[in-house]
Amino acid sequence: MSAHTTPGAQKSIIGEPEVVEDRIPDAATIALAADVEHSPAWVSLRRSVVALQSLQTGDGSVPAASDHDVARAHVARIRAAVAELAPLFPHDARYLAACRQDLQRWAEGAFGVPDFFDALVAFEPQRHRVDGLRHLVVFPMYTQNGSRDRLFEALIVETIWPEFIAALEAGDYGNRLFVSLRLVDFTPGYDTNSAVLFPETVAVREVPTFTWGAIFQDREAARYRRVVSAAARITRLELPDDAERMLSDQPLAEQAFVMWDLIHDRTHMRGDLPFDPFMIKQRMPYFLYSLEELRCDLTAYRECVAIERRLRRAEGRAPIEEEMLDRARLVQYAVVFDRIFRFAITGTRVRNYDGLGGQLLFAWLHQRGVLHWTDTALRIDWPDVPSAVIALGDAIDELYWRSIDRPKPTHWLAAYELIRGVLAPHPASVWATGLPREVLAGPPKGYTDAVLDDEFPLSMFYEALDRKMRPVIESTAGIRGSD
């Protein structure tokens, strides 16, 4: 692992609390649901959920009494389909039983705001991280980067958990709450840009302790392959052989993204943090989120550099170590390309914190002479990239370390200075010209309100790239690994 230059920087990573695994499902169990997406029961369930969505309002209820008989019929068909499909998912028996009960209670309660607390607590995919194992998922929920309405959604998902990932997670990168999934089939809430399944999106009467979080690595990998292929062609970037190989191989790209997200996800609560870097349920300038997400990505990058260097020095590597070495190299390409080609120009310009992080990485590499835009062609000096990327990670780590001793507004101001040292603020920015004394002396809300929606506009390079890439990025909504 690359050592931090900041005094007192934390170098060790504390493992997650132990979660007891259930009996590991065998090949026969995995095979039970191998073709379930084509079964009549799933087709009926999916159709009934879509029909039920048309009766729901934003909070998930069905307020019109005139719709209740139709809603009751849809719920009956969904419950029957879940019961028929349940034997194919024996590892989810407790959850599927609770799901049927919550559906029945919702119908008997005149279709008010749904409460799937019991089903959510019973659903524990983190206990069954076995490659190829499938789950049937039915919840009233919103879909991040999809729909903000808590409508019923139904999914068939498949676990991605190769042996080398299991070895990483059992070793230095423990993250017992992380679940990696592949989308098999889904209702319209996931025919969007949503690539996560998070328990906090489910409609419940009270907030339980969250014990898992799932990311659809097949969608992440598929849109990466489509976007980066197009961007490399448009910018005339000559790709390294390994990067080319990942763009032509969906399973390989999926594994690289699993490795990336495994390390990224666990980083949010590790390191020298001011307290909670996300300031949960607190309002703060969006560029703070930019730095936190970028910090976690750059930590994944740094760790993959360390893994690659360690394994290259090792003699007599086992097959699983060869996989680990190869994927560690691919993660480095994935972090750089996804950040500078997709993140930077995806979404609107309204407080787009991932977009800002992509712009920041591009400009940092350009200003350090390892990324070149010359004669309308992009060129990257790959041998020099690791030290430049790690230097940006170190700068963010130092910001965090120093901010442990700073008041919140002072941390915010220091974070802004770090970013504006690389990116040009909007000419009309109040932050750039200096916040008025009444804002500086006032509550944090005044600081946040003074941030422009597009505080750091796109550069001329990105304005041109955005025009050419917009159709490609829009085409990735609803994408899956088989597309």
How would you portray this structure in words?
The chain is α+β, with helices and mostly antiparallel strands. It has two domains: 27-211, no CATH class; 254-474, no CATH class. The protein contains 18 helices and seven strands. The strands form two sheets. The chain has a five-stranded mixed sheet. Strands 6-7 form a two-stranded antiparallel sheet. A hairpin with a 2-residue loop joins strand 6 and strand 7 (377-380). It is globular and about 65 Å long. The chain starts with 26 loop residues before the first helix and ends in a 9-residue tail after the last helix. Mean pLDDT is 93; it is low at 1-21.
Keywords:
483 residues, alpha+beta, 2 domains, 18 helices, 7 strands, 50% helix
Topology:
Layout: H1 27-32, H2 40-53, H3 68-85, H4 93-108, H5 117-122, E1 134-141, E2 151-159, H6 163-170, E3 178-186, E4 196-197, E5 213-216, H7 217-235, H8 241-247, H9 250-267, H10 286-313, H11 319-342, H12 353-367, E6 371-374, E7 377-380, H13 385-403, H14 408-420, H15 430-433, H16 437-440, H17 444-449, H18 460-474
Parallel strand pairs: 3-5
Antiparallel strand pairs: 1-2, 2-3, 4-5, 6-7
Helix pairs in contact: 2-3, 3-4, 6-11, 7-9, 7-11, 7-18, 9-10, 9-11, 10-11, 10-12, 10-13, 11-12, 13-14
